[in-house]
Amino acid sequence: MISKLISEIKKKNAPIVVGLDPMLSYVPSHIQKKAFDECGETLEGAAEAIWRYNKGIVDAVYDLIPAVKPQIAMYEQFGIPGLQAFHRTVEYCKSKGLIVIGDIKRGDIGSTSQAYAVGHIGKVQVGSKVYAGFDEDFVTVNPYLGSDGVKPFVDICRQNDKGIFVLVKTSNPSSGEFQDRIVDGKPLYELVGEKVVEWGADCLDGDYSNVGAVVGATYPEQGKLLRKVMPKAFILVPGYGAQGGKGADLAYFFNEDGLGAIINSSRGIIAAYKQESYANYGEEGYADASRAAVLAMKEDIQSALDAR
Amino acid sequence: MISKLISEIKKKNAPIVVGLDPMLSYVPSHIQKKAFDECGETLEGAAEAIWRYNKGIVDAVYDLIPAVKPQIAMYEQFGIPGLQAFHRTVEYCKSKGLIVIGDIKRGDIGSTSQAYAVGHIGKVQVGSKVYAGFDEDFVTVNPYLGSDGVKPFVDICRQNDKGIFVLVKTSNPSSGEFQDRIVDGKPLYELVGEKVVEWGADCLDGDYSNVGAVVGATYPEQGKLLRKVMPKAFILVPGYGAQGGKGADLAYFFNEDGLGAIINSSRGIIAAYKQESYANYGEEGYADASRAAVLAMKEDIQSALDAR
Fold this sequence. Notes:
With about 300 residues, chain A is α/β, with parallel strands linked by helices. The first copy, chain A, contains 13 helices and 13 strands. The first copy, chain A, has helices spanning about 1-10, 30-40, 45-60, 70-75, 80-95, 110-120, 145-160, 175-180, 190-200, 220-230, 245-250, 265-270, 285-305; strands spanning about 15-20, 65-70, 100-105, 125, 130, 140, 165-170, 180-185, 185, 205, 210-215, 235, 260-265. In chain A, helix 2 packs across helix 3 (about 45-60). The radius of gyration of chain A is 19 Å and the shape is globular. The mean pLDDT of chain A is about 95.
């Protein structure tokens, strides 16, 4: 699956993923109104609103980007109807040729991690039939439980040509509280990075492994180190844009082949119309504002890569 | 919420939680057959089968136990229909007076953790209305992202009188890979335990905090230490029974007041009929076998506490 992602990155010339993390407050009022008129001010209405909002954005940007990353929490907050909107978003994005990274950050003891892996990137047996529950292409995985919590995901990647990104150094302000603590002279995130290399060794798909890592754009120095620690791991880089990561910080996350990283922006793209620089698009033009923001992000990252 | 859990533990005289972690392979064939006859060999059929299986167990044991702990992964593997069975199970258990601990092990950056907290123990605003998506009483939380990933859960506990259990030292074989690593002379799990104390300090509900911890029965020495580190944190103890934790190992997890811990058993209870000792119940008597296993577990734990 990582070779497919790389091929799409090359084709679109954009190491970019758009985070489909809809808050109801981002959804333009005309979309909210229509959804509430049809479904009421209900969980179903909220789910319908975020689905339509997503669809508008996807239709406006799918030709520019290789992948999307829906954050399942933003859907899960609306209960079952929200998760139905997540599923619908995954399916729609795949129908538009996009690779889908399910940002689910799951992780548990072995048999339980296996159930998550089956549900999101695998297939489940029901009597004589087999089904895929959510069927994303990649998912994010939390490593706190160690190898036996991660390996069921790796096994299923191998069986189904899927991929994972393991949380190594997250983009949030307090990520250092545990991740930066020094163990045997090295920060914990580096040990996790070394494990990512180990977990991914049997999962190569071309030059890169189907086992990648998450490293926040907000920590470029750590990105530089981790790029060296995990040469064959693709790095999913959140934290660009709204969280404060800048284009110039990102060059370190890439290998010399110009590959090895994919940069996520969520709010900065999907709620671009709320920023001063795209205010002229207005609420009605939110999807076009997202398209303009993708083009600007693409240029920003290209400049950073050119300046290396 | 922790005071409500304590009062139910005292009323039922059982510091026990039954893990509702249904695998399709645990569901007796007559239940599977009926569900498949009605809904086909589909995700809906699988969801119907695990829901009926759960209901049978809950009906047989609810008068003996204070709480249940459905593991959401076991439902999520069946996609949306599976999650509907999870929701139905949560609602049914609450209607039988049981406290529901959603074993969801979520955790993300701040705004995203907030969405998870809203969806599982909080309420979400939709226009002028407010809804609870899943409405468990407690959830489990992964601490790898640090304070800003945990605090949104703590805030929502305070607002809605709910509780959380933070993963500190998990029951699985490789939990030590990161959790046992020594930082400033202490294992990482101890640092996480100290943070649990900090996070829970403003969340007291009687003698205990609504912020508890998960510590596996399979690590009694670590349980002994963590009991002292976190005197006001209730400990949710998985790993008893099928995973190898024994009654005698459990005494350390309790405080001298006989409180402070609640022991989970999943497979050992819900699939008791598959064990040699309960084989005489047969598949048809699976729920009665579960009841017998709860009674045996209750006795085992009581003996361990008496022997202190």
